[in-house]
């Protein structure tokens, strides 16, 4: 892995006046990140409450409420609201935590974090690739940085349309890890797994009807792509699947990353079996902290039949 791959070079165009506002905002953000962690929690939760009052935020929170109602029909309206209130706070904290993950020193990250189950990463067969399944918790950026200080891997991300933001994002995410791959670069992921690398992988998004199968996500059929997990496991057969969840502790003590034992996918005979099992893995991880999951997206926007009514109307 070359230095250029790990640390993309600075480009002089980033000093163009069009980027001055972004540089100013970044400087102010880094000053805020100097606050003590408990103060940052207060700031982050406040940002979440502000987000929920804005037009865009209100729409997203309606989507989050609907997702919770669909996934947990056994919960009362009061229980849903309690989860939603905490989720709103986590949305704001995600902004602060992204900055913490990208800019905090290693020592500060270590001070406010701990890992449970690191042996499930360390004690895999020599040469085996690891598909490190991290569902879309709002704490995912912190989780990647924390684990990377103990076990480096290769991240998977979506490049940002703004070249300066993409440069900042790339450098921030690769600080404690080996490299980054475009999420569409399946060949790159396969090569890395065959080389015995650990790939950060989040399978829990709806990418549309094309190349998808419908399997239950909690109690609701969901479109799951067949171009991801199944292809990676078939192309790199020595790969093991290890799930994890980064949890923000409620007592202001920081973060606990919970790594689970490897999950056996060897008995999955087709795309449907693989997607069904992966969704069960995802659901089990979400249950570790329902309020910290990213419920803001329309998880069920693609329905089994094109004529089916939207679940969000």
UniProtKB/TrEMBL annotation:
Pathway: Bacterial outer membrane biogenesis; lipopolysaccharide biosynthesis; Glycolipid biosynthesis; KDO(2)-lipid A biosynthesis; KDO(2)-lipid A from CMP-3-deoxy-D-manno-octulosonate and lipid IV(A): step 3/4. Keywords: Acyltransferase, Cell inner membrane, Cell membrane, Lipopolysaccharide biosynthesis, Membrane, Transferase, Transmembrane, Transmembrane helix. This is Lipid A biosynthesis acyltransferase. InterPro entries: LipA_acyltrans, Lipid_A_LpxL_LpxP. It holds the Pfam family Lip_A_acyltrans. CDD domains: LPLAT_LABLAT-like. The keyword Cell membrane applies. It is an enzyme of class 2 (transferase). Belongs to the LpxL/LpxM/LpxP family. GO terms for cellular component: plasma membrane. It catalyses: an alpha-Kdo-(2->4)-alpha-Kdo-(2->6)-lipid IVA + a fatty acyl-[ACP] = an alpha-Kdo-(2->4)-alpha-Kdo-(2->6)-(acyl)-lipid IVA + holo-[ACP]. Catalyzes the transfer of an acyl chain from an acyl-[acyl-carrier-protein] (ACP) to a Kdo(2)-lipid IV(A) to form a Kdo(2)-(acyl)-lipid IV(A). Its EC number is 2.3.1.241. The chain crosses the membrane at residues 20-43. It is found in: Cell inner membrane. GO terms for biological process: Kdo2-lipid A biosynthetic process; lipid A biosynthetic process; lipopolysaccharide biosynthetic process. The keyword Zinc does not apply. It comes from the Bacteria. It is a single-pass membrane protein. A motif (HXXXXD motif) lies at residues 136-141. GO terms for molecular function: Kdo2-lipid IVA acyltransferase activity. Its main location: membrane.
């Amino acid at each position: 892995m070359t230095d250029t791959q790990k640390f993309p070079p600075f480009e002089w165009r980033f000093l163009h006046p069009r980027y001055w506002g972004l540089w100013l905002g970044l400087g102010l953000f880094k000053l805020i990140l100097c606050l003590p962690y408990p103060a940052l929690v207060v700031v982050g939760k406040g940002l979440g409450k502000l987000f929920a009052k804005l037009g865009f935020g209100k729409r997203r929170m309606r989507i989050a409420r609907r997702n919770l109602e669909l996934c947990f029909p056994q919960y009362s309206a009061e229980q849903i609201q309690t989860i939603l209130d905490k989720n709103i706070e986590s949305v704001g904290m995600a902004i602060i935590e992204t900055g913490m993950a990208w800019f905090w020193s290693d020592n500060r990250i270590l001070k406010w974090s701990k890992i449970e189950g690191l042996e499930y990463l360390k004690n895999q067969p020599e040469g085996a690739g690891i598909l490190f399944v991290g569902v879309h918790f709002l704490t995912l950026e912190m989780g990647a940085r924390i684990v990377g200080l103990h076990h480096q891997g290769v991240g998977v991300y979506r490049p940002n349309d703004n070249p300066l933001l993409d440069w900042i994002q790339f450098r921030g995410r690769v600080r404690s890890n080996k490299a980054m791959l475009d999420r569409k670069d399946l060949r790159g992921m396969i090569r890395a797994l065959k080389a015995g690398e650990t790939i950060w992988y989040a399978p829990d998004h709806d990418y549309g009807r094309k190349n998808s199968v419908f399997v239950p996500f909690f109690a609701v059929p969901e479109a799951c792509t067949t171009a991801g997990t199944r292809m990676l496991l078939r192309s790199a057969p020595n790969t093991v699947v290890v799930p994890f969840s980064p949890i923000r502790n409620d007592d202001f003590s920081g973060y606990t990353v919970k790594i689970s034992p490897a999950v056996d996918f060897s008995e999955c005979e087709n795309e449907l079996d693989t997607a069904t099992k992966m969704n069960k893995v995802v659901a089990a991880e979400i249950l570790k902290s329902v309020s910290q999951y990213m419920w803001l997206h329309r998880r069920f926007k693609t329905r089994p039949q094109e004529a089916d009514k939207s679940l969000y109307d």
